[in-house]
Amino acid sequence: MVDCQFFYDSMLKQGIDFFTGVPDSLLKNITACIADQSGAGRHITAANEGGAVALAAGHYLATGRPGLVYMQNSGLGNAINPLVSLTDPMVYNMPLLLLIGWRGEPGLEDEPQHLKQGLVTLPLLQALGLQYSILPGTEEDAYEELVKATEHIRALNEPYALVAGKDIFGPYEAENENASRTSLAGFKGGAAAGEDPGEPAGQAGFRGSFEQCPLTREEAAIIALESLQPGAAVISTTGKLSREIYEYRERSEESHEKDFLNVGSMGHASQIALSVALNLPGREIYCFDGDGAVLMHMGALATSGTSGAANYKHLVFNNGAHESVGGQPTVAGNIDLVKIAKACSYNKSFRAETKEQLDAALEKVKANQGPVFLEIRVRPGGRKELGRPKSTPQENKRQFMQFLQKGSA
Fold first, then answer.
1. Which of 13, 58, 338, 343 is in the most buried spot, having the most CB atoms within 10 Å?
2. Which CATH fold would you assign to the domain 203-406?
3. Residue 127's closest CA among 75, 78, 67, 84?
4. Residue 407 has what DSSP assignment?
């Protein structure tokens, strides 16, 4: 067996000091060690495995260092989208280390729901183009595989997986008994669901026509961009919103360095932004999100809201539609995102629809400590001549990382 403290210390020696993922029974001892030993902000239990990949990506953007993402092999399905459309060498080319518990390993007895997943685990990693090793059960050999993995991800800037079977990690007794327990520090009780004073009246349970909203998404995005502090950074969701941000910078003859235009991994922009914010507490980090993306991974709202990231500002441009893929409707007009965000422990939660409301709300967003949430109701539709970024995702990544390294203006 591999001693958990030994493996944790070995990861630190290899420069891996950020940990996130979804718990697994085969990894329970090493994840208990990680939770116990990691400092504040160094460990996040994610809502799903894809969100964990996005959190590790944000950590890399902010620090230039890879993180560890742990999961059961059944979670690979949740992680595929960001692995192939965010961290993959054909897109942004980002390094991270995967630690995957191998339930249903061929030749071993397991529950029926794990048997097929166990059979396809290694073929699935191969199909994804992920290099991997099966983690040995001795410390010397496990350390050798860890070094091999970290050398690979640094040399090629891409993910690498360590697959851990049954009984690889030895028992671990936590030094900090509360390390693995859920904190209720952000819990605000039933009153948290109320709307913020000063909200536009009659908005709860909105079921009107988005066609009546005065602003288009592009108009609202420009207003928001022009309100930001000089040192603020923006992580924007995939689709037309990112394209509109790119064209605004082009027209304004501004650099694109302040914006990470997330071309893939729909629904995960908020976790990328959150991780950047946690790593760079001295500057304002904005997520420009869409209603379809928020609905796709609503668990991310809970992760963000309870994070305590005072510099994290989450703007959701809600037009009630999947605009970028044909305008099919979402249910975002039939639920109250402001109340949901408040219930997820965002420090403040606002809504705006007119230019006047948006101007006032943006001032509140800047004035209040995060996590702060702002829903901006906008009219569907956009310019037919809307172009696409001329720079590659990797060029965008490099510019953005260089901007973050400059420090707040």
1. 58
2. Rossmann fold (3.40.50)
3. 84
4. -
